[in-house]
Specification:
Elements (H helix, E strand, L loop, with lengths): L1 E5 L6 E5 L5 E3 L9 H4 L3 H14 L22 E5 L3 H7 L8 E5 L4 E2 L14 E2 L2 E7 L15 E8 L2 E2 H5 L5 H5 L5 E2 L4 E2 L13 E4 L2 E4 L12 E2 L5 E2 L11 E6 L2 E6 L7 E4 L10 E4 L7 E5 L2 E5 L10 E6 L1
Parallel strand pairs: 6-11
Antiparallel strand pairs: 1-2, 1-12, 2-3, 4-5, 7-10, 8-9, 13-14, 15-16, 17-18, 18-23, 19-22, 20-23, 21-22
Length: 321
């Protein structure tokens, strides 16, 4: 599902973006896209899916030109990780932190994705960053790594505005430099996990004064890897490029998504972490219509990719177990 919010500031209402592109006013559902709703976890999403199936067809449509608000209602906190991309650390001339740099943005900074930005008084070094934000659903505390994605309600684009002068030159106050009104646009919509299974391989971009600016990909927060060149193409890092053996994984129910971070060698891939006792039913390469031929053995799950597959900077396999 794709969820959005719309309306004048202070009068925002929930909406749903249907597969055919129709924008539906979901006020009749009876809940906003807030912590109370997302905190219900799968139960809340199931209730919404039922409403969409029964009532979305007759619900009012959102007129073209209507203001898009922050895709989620004001949460209790916005938790951010500083220098979460190696590329950003490089361009900032900063060394990679040994521990994640955690800071908060004021929730009053939330704004719509297309709202004009009013620069803070005294600020002359306002900067922007495109981020893929995770919206937490069911309450999470001391969660095991393998269970983390069960608590993610969805993903939303976040333009992480910063006033670098306030942040770096006035006693290093990160929150002060990142919390001005309008410094946290979220949107245009929240995509639930099934809408974005290969979230670590998506290309991030935003518009600055109407000009499209292409950024990095979430995978660059995991380690050395592809970096973007000036013309918008990607080149392998010279220091430690990914190989065809490098995978990242995420799960949704009994479905495993394996993200291969380099071109498969001779059209084949081997996932050593999937042993024969985990019976695989089907494997599909996202972005193609052809199935992936596979074989399970002691060495792992061996994949043979379709010959007509498009070349991609990352390959996302949906593995049904």
């Amino acid at each position: 599902m794709k969820l959005f919010r719309f309306g004048a500031p202070g009068e925002e209402r929930p909406g749903v973006l249907l597969p055919d592109g129709a924008r539906v006013d979901a006020s009749g559902f009876g809940a906003d896209w807030n912590e109370a709703f997302f905190g219900q976890g799968d139960a809340g999403m199931a209730r919404l899916a039922k409403w969409i199936a029964s009532d979305a067809g007759k619900a009012p449509r959102v007129p073209a030109g209507t203001r898009l608000a922050s895709a989620i209602a004001r949460p209790s906190k916005l938790v951010c990780i500083g220098l979460n991309y190696r590329d950003h650390a490089r361009e900032s001339g900063a060394s990679l932190p040994g521990e994640p740099i955690v800071f908060l943005k004021a929730t009053s900074a939330l704004a719509g994705p297309e709202d004009d930005l009013r620069l803070p008084i005294g600020g002359d070094k306002t900067d922007w960053e495109v981020e893929l934000a995770l919206v937490i659903g069911a309450r999470a505390k001391y969660v095991a790594v393998e269970d983390a994605m069960k608590h993610v309600a969805g993903f939303v684009l976040h333009n992480d505005y910063s006033e670098r002068g306030f942040q770096l030159e006035r006693h290093g106050q990160w929150t002060k430099g990142k919390s001005a009104d309008g410094f946290a646009p979220l949107g245009p919509f929240l995509a639930t996990p099934e809408e974005l299974p290969g979230f670590a391989a998506v290309r991030l971009w935003l518009k600055v004064n109407g000009e499209a600016i292409y950024g990095t990909r979430p995978w660059s927060s995991f380690g050395e890897g592809p970096t973007e060149t000036a013309n918008g193409t990607f080149a392998e890092s010279k220091s430690k490029p990914y190989t065809a053996r490098d995978f990242r994984f995420t799960t949704r129910g009994s479905t495993l998504y394996a993200i291969q971070l380099a071109e498969p060698e001779n059209g084949r891939a081997l996932i050593t972490s999937i042993r024969p006792d985990r019976v695989v039913k089907r494997v599909h390469l996202l972005g193609t219509n052809a199935p992936v031929t596979f074989e399970q053995a002691e060495a792992g799950l061996s994949l043979t990719l379709p010959a007509n597959r498009p070349s991609q900077p990352a390959y996302v396999y949906r593995i049904e177990i």
